[in-house]
C-alpha cells in the first residue's frame, strides 16, 4: 500500500521507516521539496521511500499519517491540500504541546477540543483516526520492545477507518487485544490530555521507554 507521511521529525521518520520495513511504499512530506531530513531519510530507506512536499506526500498516499506538531497540524494539512486528502484515512499522531513558556509544556487545545477534532472539522471528508500519540515513537513502531501488557488507543468517527488503523497497528506489532477503541473523534481529547501526564512520567522515570497499560475490569458474572 502507498502511505503519505506528513512530517520529517523523529516520529515521521520512525513511522515511515517501519512502514517501509513491513512492505509499504512511503512518501515523506515537508513544507519544502528539498527538506534535508526527508532527503536523507529517503536516500537511506531504499527503493520504496520517496520524499516531497506535504502536497506530494498526501497525493501519493492511499493512507496518510499526520506527524507534525499539534499546533501546526491544521496548517500542515492545509498545505497538503484538501483535494489530496479527500476521504482518505488520516492517522493523527500529533500532540498539542506548547513549549513557548518553557517546561512544563501546556496544551494549545484541550478540554472541549483536540487536534484530532480540529483536523476532522477542517477536512470533513477525511476519516481522521487519532492513535499512537500516547507513547514515544520508538514504542509506537516496536511495541514488543517493552515487556508485558500495554495499550494503544484509537479515536475516530468512521468504523472502517478504525478497522484499517487496527490492521496497520497489527503490522507494527500491536496485538489486537492491546488496542482500545475510545470512541468517536471527541475521545481524542482524552488521548491528547494524557500527554501532560506522559511528560511528568518521563521525568519521574528518567526514560521515555515506557507505556501505559490498562488493567481491564474483571469479567461480569453471567447472571449479571
Ligand atoms: N517524539 C515522540 O516520540 C512523540 C510521541 C507521540 C507524539 N508525538 C507528536 O508527534 C508529532 C511529531 O513530533 P516530532 O518530534 O517528530 O516532530 P515536530 O518537530 O513536532 O514536527 C515536525 C514537523 O512539523 C512541521 N512544521 C513545523 N512548523 C510548521 C508550520 N508552521 N507549518 C507546517 N508544518 C510545520 C515540520 O515541517 P518541515 O518538515 O518543513 O520542517 C516537520 O515536518 C508532534 O505533534 C508530537 O507532539 C511525538
Describe the structure.
With 224 residues, this protein is α/β, with parallel strands linked by helices. The chain has a single domain, classed as 3-Layer(aba) Sandwich (Rossmann fold). 38% of the residues lie in helices and 19% in strands. It contains nine helices and ten strands. The strands form two sheets. The protein has an eight-stranded mixed beta sheet with strand order 3-2-1-4-5-8-9-10, with helices on both faces. The protein is globular, with a radius of gyration of 17 Å. 42% of the residues are buried. It binds NADP nicotinamide-adenine-dinucleotide phosphate (NAP). The site of NADP nicotinamide-adenine-dinucleotide phosphate (NAP) has 24 residues, from α1 and α4.
Brief overview, please?
This protein is 38% helix and 19% strand. It has 224 residues and is an alpha/beta fold. The structure holds NADP nicotinamide-adenine-dinucleotide phosphate (NAP).
Amino acid at each position: 500500500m502507498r502511505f503519505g507521511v506528513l512530517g520529517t521529525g523523529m516520529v515521521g521518520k520512525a513511522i515511515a521507516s517501519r512502514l517501509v520495513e513491513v512492505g509499504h511504499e512511503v512518501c515523506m512530506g515537508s513544507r519544502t521539496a528539498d527538506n534535508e531530513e526527508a532527503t536523507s531519510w529517503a536516500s537511506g530507506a531504499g527503493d520504496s521511500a520517496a520524499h516531497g512536499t506535504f502536497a506530494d506526500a498526501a497525493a501519493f498516499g492511499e493512507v496518510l499519517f499526520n506527524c507534525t506538531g499539534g499546533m501546526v497540524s491544521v496548517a500542515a494539512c492545509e498545505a497538503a491540500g484538501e483535494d489530496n486528502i479527500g476521504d482518505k484515512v488520516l492517522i493523527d499522531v500529533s500532540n498539542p504541546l506548547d513549549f513557548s513558556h518553557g517546561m512544563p509544556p501546556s496544551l494549545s487545545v484541550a478540554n472541549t477540543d483536540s487536534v484530532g477534532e480540529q483536523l476532522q472539522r477542517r477536512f470533513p471528508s477525511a476519516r481522521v483516526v487519532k492513535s499512537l500519540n500516547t507513547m514515544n515513537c520508538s514504542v509506537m513502531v516496536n511495541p514488543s520492545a517493552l515487556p508485558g501488557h500495554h495499550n494503544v488507543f484509537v479515536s475516530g468517527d468512521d468504523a472502517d477507518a478504525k478497522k484499517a488503523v487496527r490492521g496497520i497497528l497489527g503490522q507494527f506489532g500491536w496485538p489486537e487485544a492491546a488496542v482500545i477503541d475510545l470512541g468517536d473523534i471527541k475521545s481524542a481529547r482524552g488521548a491528547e490530555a494524557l500527554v501532560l501526564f506522559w511528560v511528568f512520567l518521563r521525568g519521574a522515570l528518567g526514560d521515555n521507554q515506557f507505556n501505559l497499560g490498562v488493567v481491564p475490569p474483571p469479567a461480569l458474572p453471567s447472571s449479571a
